[in-house]
Amino acid sequence: MKISLSNHYILIVRLGENEQAVKKLQLISIPIVGVIIILFFFDTRIWLAASNLVAQEPYYRITDLITTKGLNLFYAAFMVILVYALLKKNQKLIGLLAAYIKTQVLFSLVLVRVLKVVLGRARPGHGSEFTFFSFAFRYNSFPSGHATDAFVCGVFLFYLLKHSAYSAGRYLPLIFAFLIAVSRVFISSHYPSDVVAGMAIGSLGAWFFISRLDD
Question: Any idea what DSSP says for residue 42?
């Protein structure tokens, strides 16, 4: 099979872009890790203050609704986009959705689940220590899977809206993703550092794949 010079050049450019994306990912990760480490020292106090704020109705019911149903709205939005893309045979939009699925599988599913088991951090109400290599639900707190999923969805929708006629509303998915993420602290499912880690993994994972898309 022959490879033309133009295709060879495109391949070299793509490889260079991938390397730059990885380097940027590493640089951005350093301050985020620092923030998460600092939060470890304040996790319990922040969690207790947050849970006390929504201890009474209807506040707890609202946060519980956001945390249990919020991701379903994101998934429904992507299903609508998928149907639209297939009906219109929009290859660019299909490529974006393929990148979204890759991000969810590699970052939200594989990476987050591996970290949960390996680190084995106790959930609020069960301590805050790391037991390491635990499959028990109460020791799978770090990082937050909901926060990761939410920010993968939020960042992809932000990108999609930014390059559409509805760019004015591009920040709404990020705001909603943030509400889903922090709701995990309010209902005592996660510590703040779990949520921040999930937000970072979801955002950086989405950015990594989006940066590789053709403009």
Answer: T
Contacts of 70 (CB under 8 A, 6+ apart): 146, 150, 176, 179, 180, 183
Report the interhelical angle of 59-88 vs 91-103 (nearest 10°).
140
Q: Is the peptide bond before 58 cis (omega within 30 degrees of 0)?
A: yes
Count CB atoms within 10 A of the CB of residue 176.
18
- The string of DSSP letters for 74-141 reads HHHHHHHHHHHHHHHT-HHHHHHHHHHHHHIIIIIIIIHHHHHHHH-BPPTTS-S-B-SS---GGG--
The partner residues of 130 in beta bridges, in order of sequence, read 121
Average pLDDT on 85-95 reads 94
**Span 37-66, mean pLDDT?**
91
Rounded Cα distance between 47 and 53, Å, is: 10
For 133-161, the pLDDT digits (tens) are 999 999 999 999 999 999 999 999 999 99
